[in-house]
Amino acid sequence: MKLIEVVGYDSRWPEMFDAEKEIISAALGDNCVAIHHVGSTAVPGLAAKPKIDIVAVAENREKAIFDLEKAGYSHRGEWNIPLKCGFTKRGATDVNLHLFFDENHPEIELNLKFRDYLRANPAVRDEYAAVKIKILEDESAHQKADGSLFPIYTVRKRKFIDDIIRATGFDRLRVLKCATDNEWDAAEKFRKKYADPIVKNSDDHEHFVLYRGVEIIGYADIHIFSKTEAELSIFETSDEESRKFFTDVIEKLMNVRGYGYLEASGVSGSSEAFGGSIPLRG
To answer: In this predicted model, what pLDDT tens digit does every residue of 134-166 receive, in sequence order?
Structure first.
């Protein structure tokens, strides 16, 4: 168990970001589209974990991964965001790097709106700091949450963070891998009339929820048979727009994973779950 540390704002954090931005920009070269300082260290006056969060956008996925690893960043996978590449770097400056391949990705806009809202609202910023410190008074906050990629500390912040996101007016569609109690509960409700209960952290299933803003409106279950074969076994959304967005994300994700393209036309356009499965084979 790694202990989580939240410290007072450090005026050196923007300088640390600038230094890492130069390293990332040099590593990516012409492949680089954008680099942003996000997270709590990007908000003057906000207490934070002393790790610089950076969002970067590149065009070529494989080249970006190769070049960033050469520059000292360790590739850690998607975490809970499909089609993202997460990297960490530990040393004189600790960095969490979130790499995307679409400048219009909803998670980029969400992070920038969240950052800018806290910058513009010092009272909310200070309330957020107090929430963090309060959560860490419970020793269990350092432990990993059940069925999650993240510690209880991160999961317990979500309600406050969601309230801020609502206040920003952000309401775009976005897809996340199930990682919190709220997401697992929503997934169970979507699938209970179609399939057996979910086994969290199963090696042969991946569970995704579709959000509009911070409200869950859809669910998908990908059944994995091997490194080259999988199927979309349950799929449910509320309308045509969300169905298209959700299937587009799954199609791209399966292509990156090497399963080939999803036949999106085979998914029902209604709000009913899709049963019988769609093969996804490389």
So the answer is: 999 988 989 887 766 788 888 889 999 999 999
Provide the domain limits for residue 17.
Answer: 13-126
**Closest Cα partner for 122 from 46, 48, 50, 53?**
46
- CA dist 94 → 17, 19, 78, 97, 118 (Å): 10, 12, 19, 10, 22
46 and 119 together in one domain:
yes
Backbone angles phi, psi at 247, to 5 degrees: -65, -35
Same domain, 182 and 105: no
Through-space distance between the first and last CA atoms of the chain, rounded to whole angstroms: 38
Measured CA distances, 93 to 50, 57, 89, 259 (Å): 9, 21, 8, 37
**Contacts made by residues 153-157, CB under 8 angstroms, sequence distance 24+:** 153/4, 155/179, 155/180, 155/181, 157/131, 157/132
Count of alpha carbons within 13 angstroms of residue 95, beta-carbon side: 30
Same domain? For 22 and 112 the reply is: yes
